[in-house]
Amino acid sequence: MAIAVDQPRHTPTRAAFASWIGSALEYYDFFIYGTASALVFGKVFFPNTDPAAGLLLSLATFGVGYVARPIGAFFLGHIGDKFGRKRVLISTVVLMGASTFLVGCLPGYDQIGVFAPTLLVILRLCQGFSASGEQAGANSMSLEHAPRGRRSFVTSFTLNGTQAGSLLATGVFIPVSTLPQDQLLAWGWRVPFWLSLVVVVVGLLIRRGLSETPAFIENQQRRTLARAPLSLVFRNYTPQMVRVLLCSLVSTVSTIFGVYGLSYAVNIVKINQTTMLTVGIVANVVALVALPSWALLADRIGRKPVFIFGALAPGVLMFAYLWSISQANIALIFAVGILMSGITYSASNAIWPAFYGEMFDTRVRLSGMAIPTQIGFALGGFAPTIAAALQGGDAGAWTPVAVVTLVACLIAAGSAATARETYQLELHELGNEPATQSASVAIAS
């Protein structure tokens, strides 16, 4: 018999808000690095290489952050499933804020030589480690607080916050990017990183006041928390984890749009960087509305059709977007960029927190989401580096980049098609572990 756990009626709203603002602050930090790697880091940390090689190295440091994400997912997934979602969310916001602030304090290559890019990589690894638990922790928290029939909508606020963080990061860089080149390289790029101190203060204040989820508390009271969540999730949920990993390849759209597309336009085609940053801002503003709209639809018709559309449509539109950049057609860049990133990609981005989380039961939900998504995101994180290598310095060689993006989206859509539909199930019905196996699970003391 389930143990009743009281939950104030306003708790789902508080959980959604905590997920939103926490993700906004966390991913502000994560995304300002991506913007800086496309516009500044090649000149600050790799000045002795030719421009194309410096840009490639700079984008590689962006991708390095994704290497730490699978490692962090194993660690933070274990912590979150054994000791609670709240503990993970507090830890991630502190680590992300501190490492980002320190990036802004780093001397350049001209001051300390090779130690500068080395320290940059170390801090980027810390960012990736933190990000690995942020979304899975926030998604688990909001999903387990949400009522049936509203889970997709409530969990979408995590990704809405991610978009808001990207919007804030891009918005902060616009005035900075207008500085004279010498001031931008000397100190201007550091200001957005120093502002990350706000992350630590605001994030801690909000998340410390949030209660643990009723589902986790119930397992805690019944003493049915898994002593080894990682062992349990790999033993009983390997097919779901593979499915989530492949679905997560749709994130290639985001990194190609936000990092490679920006770099291609500014550094190769020579489009004004403020113009391209504005494209990102407008697309993210549109996404703030599109995300909850797609999530509401997924609560009505199911997760699979919305996700599959949100994978296929932006994969096709990437051809039009990169072509419009190659032609320096500003009006078309705005139109296709908004349609691709702001509207169609939001369909998959809005509902994956519920779609993935509903594949697992409460005891392994954070691990089950965190590990495969972070491996998939790691592959997507290196997409800008791969794209820059494929293109070289040829402004017209964008087609292979679009093809790679479409292939990733086709894999994600095909994997989603194999999943079962879960939008009408109760929380305790999620996952696939037979009740008869519960006796074999090591009980946490």
Describe the 3D structure.
This protein is mainly α. It has helices spanning 11-39, 41-45, 51-83, 85-105, 109-112, 115-145, 151-177, 181-188, 190-194, 197-208, 214-221, 229-236, 238-247, 252-268, 273-301, 303-326, 330-357, 365-381, 383-391, 399-417. The protein has a single domain, classed as MFS general substrate transporter like domains (Growth Hormone, Chain: A, Up-down Bundle). The longest helix is centred in the first third of the chain and has 33 residues, at 51-83. The model is unreliable at 1-6 and 433-445 (pLDDT under 50).
Q: How many DSSP E strands?
A: 0
Query: How far from one another are the termini?
Result: 20 Å
Percent of residues in helices comes to over 70%
Q: What is the domain total for the residues?
A: 1
Quickly name the level 1 CATH class. Answer: Mainly Alpha
Write out key terms for the chains shown.
445 residues; mainly alpha; Growth Hormone, Chain: A; 20 helices; 77% helix; 0% strand
Quick synopsis:
77% of the residues lie in helices and 0% in strands.
Question: What is this structure's SSE topology?
Answer:
Layout: H1 11-39, H2 41-45, H3 51-83, H4 85-105, H5 109-112, H6 115-145, H7 151-177, H8 181-188, H9 190-194, H10 197-208, H11 214-221, H12 229-236, H13 238-247, H14 252-268, H15 273-301, H16 303-326, H17 330-357, H18 365-381, H19 383-391, H20 399-417
Helix pairs in contact: 1-3, 1-4, 1-6, 1-7, 1-10, 1-14, 3-4, 3-6, 3-18, 3-19, 4-6, 4-10, 6-7, 6-18, 7-15, 7-17, 13-18, 13-20, 14-15, 14-16, 14-18, 14-19, 15-16, 15-17, 16-17, 16-20, 19-20
